[in-house]
Amino acid sequence: MSDVPTAARFPRFRLLDVALTGCRRAEAVAEIVRMARAGDRGYVCVFAADSLLKCHDDPRLAAVARGASMALCDGMPLVFAGRRFARLPVDRCYGPDVMLDALDRGRAAGLRHYFYGGADEETSRRLRERMAARFPGLRIAGAEVPPFRPLTEAERRETAARIDASGADVVWVGLGTPKQDFWMSEMRPLLKAPVLVAVGAAFAFHAGTVRQAPRWMRRSGLEWLFRLCAEPRRLWRRYLLGNPRFLWLAARQWITGRPARLGAVERPAAP
């Protein structure tokens, strides 16, 4: 297993001071599988508009994004910006879909997967059962639901020991942004698993405990409306206040002519 990361394989574009990866979904999945097989120790962030606002407001999270092997475009506004600002062939790398594609494609390589996160043990159990049924031959190394509080230093090391003992090649992290991104950054030096991937609400979607928006809404950038109607009390601030703010900041970047396309960049060395 190599501790020296390879160069970024895809061009990046800057949006709200975050260097996002400009690639197709199939390319992102292929890169996750390649990293797992090659032993490249990295982590992958999957960002929506709300995530970029959090990066804009929190320099610590922005630093985590800079250290990622890939910062994928989960939200359609990010995809539109990549196509419009940077003229890149960007696909929506929707976390739940990236996860399904990688589980499927990783079977041929014999990859072992670990699921870290989820709302409760029932969600975790249903996730494992559904994924095993959907992808015969899938190798599930393990799963756990962490406590809803920061881990102590001893708990972090115990968690790393459990995951390492499982022989996991890919650790899927479903804690929500920014918690999952900070977790990957903090745990990366402790874990032998080659790839950590943050996928937000994918665990709940695939376990069937939370409904997904219809595919046409996801493709047209209206998933936020579906989720707002489903959980108005929890999400109204994110969408009704956050969306206009994101549009304003993105428009200001475009008006001021700040460079968007960055080209292929070297990512920082692993800790």
How would you sum up this structure, described in words?
This protein is an alpha/beta fold and 271 residues long. The chain has one domain (11-199, 257-264). Helices cover 51% and strands 16% of the residues. It has helices at residues 25-38, 49-57, 59-66, 76-85, 95-109, 121-134, 153-166, 179-187, 202-207, 215-220, 223-230, 232-255, and strands spanning 11-15, 18-21, 42-47, 70-73, 112-117, 139-144, 170-174, 195-198, 261-264. Strands 4-3-8-7-5-6 form a 6-stranded parallel β-sheet, with helices on both faces. Strand 1 (11-15) and strand 2 form a beta hairpin. The two termini are 14 Å apart.
Tally of helical segments: 12
Structural class by SSE content: alpha/beta
Helicity, as a percent range:
40-55%
Number of strands: 9
How would you describe the shape?
globular
Radius of gyration: 18 Å
Number of domains: 1
Low-confidence stretches: 1-7, 264-271
Q: H/E series, N to C? A: EEHEHHEHHEHEHEHEHHHHE
Strand content: 15-25%
Main β-sheet, in a few words? 6 strands, parallel
Q: Name the strands of the widest sheet in spatial order.
A: 4-3-8-7-5-6
End-to-end gap: 14 Å
Mean pLDDT: 85
Give a summary of the structure in a few sentences.
This protein has 271 residues and is of the alpha/beta class. The protein contains twelve helices and nine strands.
Write the layout of secondary structure elements.
Blueprint: E1 11-15, E2 18-21, H1 25-38, E3 42-47, H2 49-57, H3 59-66, E4 70-73, H4 76-85, H5 95-109, E5 112-117, H6 121-134, E6 139-144, H7 153-166, E7 170-174, H8 179-187, E8 195-198, H9 202-207, H10 215-220, H11 223-230, H12 232-255, E9 261-264
Helix pairs in contact: 1-5, 2-3, 2-12, 11-12
